[in-house]
Specification:
heterotrimer, A alpha+beta (about 350), B alpha/beta (about 375), C alpha/beta (about 850), B: about 375 residues, Rossmann fold, 2 domains, nine-stranded mixed β-sheet, two-stranded antiparallel sheet, 12 helices, C: about 850 residues, disordered C terminus
Chain lengths: ~350, ~375, ~850
Amino acid sequence: MTEELGSGPAGEARDGTAVPELPGGEAGPGGGPVRAEADHGGEAGEAEPDGEQEPAGVRGYVMTRGVERDKDYRFLGAAPAALWWSAYRDHADTNYPTLLVEAGEGGWRAFVSGIPSARRDEVSTPIRFTLALTGATAAAGGPGAPVRLDRVVRLVALWLEAFTAQEGRERLGRLLDGLFPDEAEVVELRRRRDPQAARTVRERVTALLDALDPPPESGADAAGGPARALPAAWFGAARSEQGASAFVARVRDLLSGEREGRALVLNLVEDQAEAPARVGRESLAVLAVDGGPVRPQPFAVTVPGPLVVTPPGPPVETVPGPPKKFGPLHRRALLFLATPAGAAAMVLAIWYLTHRHHGGKP
Amino acid sequence: MESVTTDADAGPVFRIGMLGPSRVGKTSLVVSLLTDSERLLGGTPVVLRAADSSTRARLRLRRQELDGGLLAKKFDTAVMRGSENLTYFELDLKAGQATDGIRFSLLDFPGAWMSEHERRGSEEVRQWDECRDFLVGSNILIVPIDATVLMEADQAAHWQSVPAVLETLAVQEIAESWAGYRNLAPDEPALVVLAPVKCESYFADNGGYRDDSQLLRERVLDVYERTVELIRLNAPHAQIRYCPVDTLGCVELVKVEWEPSADDPGVQRPRGTFAVRGKGKISIAGADDILGAVCSLLVEAQRKVTTGLAAGHIASAQDMEVRGRELKRGFFRHVLNTLNGNIRANELERSGELGKARALRAQAQQLQDAVEMIAGRASSGRSKVL
Amino acid sequence: MTSGPDITAPGATGPATAARIDALLENRRGLLVTVETETARWQRTGAALGRLDEVLARLRAHRDASERLREVLGGPGLRDLRSRVAELLDQYGHAAARFSRGTVNLGVSGQARVGKSTLLQSLSGLTDDQIPTGSGVPVTAVRSRIFHTPGRSRAVVGLHTPGSFLAESVRPYHALLGLASAPETLEEFAHQRLPDEVDDSLAPLLQRLRGMQRGLWSYRDDLTGGEREVPLAELRGYVAYPTQSEVDAGEPARRYLAVREARIECPFPHAGVDRIGIVDLPGLGEVAADAERRHVAGLRHDVDAVLLVKRPLEGMAYFGAADSRALALLEEARGLVRRTGDFVFIVVNRGKDDAEGLTAALLGHLASEVDAGRAGRRFSVLQTDAADPHAVGADLLAPLLAALADRLPVMDGDIVGGLAERAGALADAVRAEVAALTAALAGLRGHASAPAEDLERQAEGLREDVAAELGEVVADLRAEVLGGFEDEHFTAAVEDAYADVSRWLARGLGTAGQDRTGPDGAGDPEAAGAAGDEDDAVHRQRWCARQLRQMRVHNNAAPVAADELNRIRVEIGRRFSSVDTYFEERVRRLHTRVADVLGQHTGELLAAEDGTVARGAEALGRFRALLDDGYEPCPELSAAVAELLALRLDYRTQLYPRIRAQLDGLNLEVLDPGEGQMRSQIAVAVNPAGVEELYDFITVRAEQAAYRTRKALLRDSVLPGMVLFAAVEQFEDALIRSGTAGREFRRLARTYRDELWPGRYGGLNSEHARFAAVARACEEIEVALRGGPGPRPAVPGPRPAVPGARTAGAGAAGARAAGGAQAVEADDTEDARWRV
């Protein structure tokens, strides 16, 4: 796994997008409210006017395509500042249903792909929706946040339903089709990069969330029991009810701020060995679309790997302000990493010296 | 950018870029090439595999989709979903048991990025840069061309739309850069494949009833004339091939409707309807020509590298021998060096080098055989070297 | 079979005579050929004279015709000649009737009471029931023809229509009685008030007319026209006058009035009469003079000899004034037969009880009065007892037929010779008249000759003007062809046809509306429109239901699939032929454009007599006719125009062969290119799912075929332009640059200078077309008189082989044409078309 990421011909290029924002800042409870976030994808005029109230703490982005051939997949109105999900390119093919949730430092972000639209493109292939959502955790968010976060959990649950039942993603697709009924508007939003368009899309996402029924409390409790009994890091199958309900419970925990870490539904991963490495002591829940144990299994080994593949992400849309500091969790992780790195550096130095010595001779 | 990255262990890694606009069928072609390689390369010692589990999984996802689409019995142009993002396929080509695998990566990307007006956001620009770097730096450039666009254009308005629909200018621009870059490394393999896809309705050799292949070739060469010229001019050593492909084989064009583009004034976009032919059994044709060309080129490059490495080892063995003689010159030096083990160490090193050289030569021979077998394989008769 | 006396008279007429009669009848066929040839010659001559009359009238009517010209041309001689020709033709017509007859006809004539009916009975074997006899009063009212027909006895009566009855039977009486208005309808006749009294001499006529009027009730229903077959037993009622007892009993029936003539077929009781017909000629001296003349006119056609029956009775045993009048009429009927005695035979009917003295007296009187003193000098007088068939056979038939066998060829020769003589005289007269006219015109020509130099300049200018403008037309079309210019109208026409086919297919594979209008309603737009409210899905369901039933009948889907594919294939091919409308329009536009160019520079040339200006093809046709009709014809220019007019663009002959292959997929079985064998494209189960599958399959195949057809047509979109370009280029070349073009333009200018440049030159040019037309009409007359070819002689000068010239033109059309061009095998040579 590791070589694939570090080496290879496209390594450099890929690293460009794979660089995650280091988790940081003491943006925990009491940290800046998420409403202060701003896209800074580089587009002029994208920043929202100060004081603009973020609708209920969830900022959403929608990617889809137009019917015409060249109207390829693109975010409507505005794109998230970082394409953080591309760090998972070896674990998930986002052209196919993929779900990624990361949380840390009072913020969370989610990536949900493969929601089918009823629309078809010019060559009659079904069109899809992909959502990217960010927000503050319930703990960090404003008063309305918990309600909305419940809806995000509901969205995740619906999305997952598709693996065990017919409904789910289709329903999400229908809702989204209802919110973007006009092809001309889609094409227009696809083209635009301005606050007005961005706001329009965000409002639609909010409307989408509002259209979802609140998650059944009892269900959450029922799922909560066994799910909470699971270890911090586990691996399961998306097609199993148990895996799905545990996953939903985990997402709830992540969004509420109870846990930091990641919950991932990955379609290129068949067994645990192929899953992303757990970073430090983060919570890591992974569902494989193909394969995976019916009962979620604890991660066999916490790889003390030398590489941070994808650390649990806080909202990448960093809050302008004082540079974030490392939290205790991350400090430990860093320490963990530093040890082998230091050893490696020593070896390198010795090797270098000896070789320079021999290097004189042909 | 270095296209052939030499890894101490893995050997060179080659790159293959797919250069085609959105919905042309890049992904379908990739899947055809890669999932059907066993059949396509049948009769040769060449084996093509996904180099890692994620590539394997990626291919599996796509294959399922392709097969599922065909099972539906009634589908339109494409069964494969469009790409949202960059997709790398890491592959391993083995041309004999004793040889090292040849690593190569193949890049698929959302074709719309080729059109400049579609790359407004920073996210696309950044990704396109990555893409473009990969394409320009690749050894092999496969240009899938939607054959139906060329063959079904029959009015002036259609012809005026062809460049926009096929993104011919972007293809030309990248091909030119590619050729310029290739010219810097004339020893490395360089191949451009003009690959008309969805050719089922224009060939009579794969279940079809009509043979319009001559016309197709004329039209492709007509539309890509300048591109071919630029490649010849900038990279005279590059091979240019014409390889028409039936991506599915069992479909046939029913009709194409050209509709005015919503936001591209003056441009009409074709929308084709296809029907399943016969029992709907996939029968890819022409892909073996591409795969054969790619493999023989890569294997040949590998052979060159291997031969070069063998020569290096022989050279160093010879150095060792000279050094051995040096170590033995004069009695005291001889004794001293014998005692401190220098002579023995040198001898071990020399025989090691020789052994490596011998192994590499054997590998080179296997590779040579493989290349010959691929070349000797019966071709579909569709492919042409330009 | 007749119930008459069964009499045979062996030896009465020898077999030798019968054979000679057969032979002479056969010989007459040869004469018929001559007569027909002459008839044709004179018909042509008559037509040519008519045309001359016509063109002279047009020349006289020309605006610029001088008084003197009108005077010269106005002579009445031509009209006289034309009536003489008509008369001659009439005579030839009679001769032809005579020579084409298959029998020798004997007319039997005589005044009342001479025993004519008795003689007829003896000759024919008919009895009183059919041919009544009577003493003292005329009994047969209708001309009857009786033919020897072994083994059959019947009569066919030809009936008057009300119109012919009024015209032929009623009006002559009105005329003779001097009544003002003859009735136009039966109703009028029925209620007409007839004068109470007339001059005594006319009283019998009035009496008859009254009888006709009163008896109308009895024959009105018989005025049906046509023929009616009547049993012999009923014949009498149709042909006989009412008997006195009937008259006395009240108003008698007069059905004979409805009868024009009767034809009786029965076996004659005589040998050797196979080819003998007997014509009963009633009424000599009975009806008004007009009626008599009419009877005589009938004789000419119908009889070869006439028996004039006399009976030596008291008071009749002499040749009186009535006999003389009858003989005079017969003389007229003789026509061109030289000897009266050959034509008229006098039969003296001496009954057993008749007084010998009276017979002798009659014979003597005959000899002195008729034969100029010596018996048999002019007429043969035959004596017999008309009541005795044996005697009639021996005394009358045998010598009569022997004489006819001798003399009929002579009579026929007389007729032919006489006609030839008359024809020769008439031909001389016609030639003289034509010569006089030609001379007169020649004298006039000197008067009006054009200033030659100026005219040549004008001709050259005309040619340049036309060349310049046609050059523009050619250039436009060339640009269209070479520039790959897409004809959007063609594209639109093809797209329309394609859309039409697609709609048709979507509507239950074209079966929408069938339920209402039957199987033929598929293409009925009204039915389709009425069904338009229904969903396509409904049509689909209906189709599936119907075809499933069929499939169940066959217990096999293949017949249904094959039939449906065939039906749809044919219909698609047919529907695309709607592009012909466009083709017609293109050709029409080209003709209009070229005609406009010509029209602009040719003054009043293309204007009709009434001043209207023709356009398009009509104008070109007129132009061509003018080129042909000129005093100096312009064959090259005319051929060029003809060629342009013959230009055709059509789907069926030009495009269909090229696109037909696109429809080949619409067959149940297609050739598998891999295996080289025919194989079925689809096999479905005989159940609802199967029929749905079949529907989808056929739909897809049909859509594909329609699409490919559309595509093949569009690929040829440059073709119509190419054909038009080739045509107009060839036209321009031939019109402007052919070797003789300059000369022919000058001819055109000379011929039509007054129309081309009205008012520029004074007076009528002798080379004007109207003069030319007169000259040509004169030539035609001469040709016709010589027995030359048809009424319209070919234009002098060679006319190029049109199809060949076209092919060459199309070949020169342009380099582009060569690539896609394919020679289509010509199988419809009658209408040469552009082949590409």
